[in-house]
Amino acid sequence: MLTEYPLDTGVYDWAIEHGHFQPRAAHQQTPSSVGRFTTAHQEHFHYTDGDPD
């Protein structure tokens, strides 16, 4: 899978800024949680053995 990431901003901040995510619990704001954050709202492309699916 190839995922498009925003430039010059973290995906966590991008998702909050664009209304795709709102942290509701304290653990969702910890550095470890922010560091592994992903969102399906980013454009992404699937490939198998280098060929688009």
TrEMBL record:
Residue ranges annotated for the DUF7710 domain, each copy included: 1-51
InterPro entries associated with the record: DUF7710 (IPR056127)
Record protein name field: DUF7710 domain-containing protein
Source organism phylogeny: Bacteria, Bacillati, Actinomycetota, Actinomycetes, Streptosporangiales
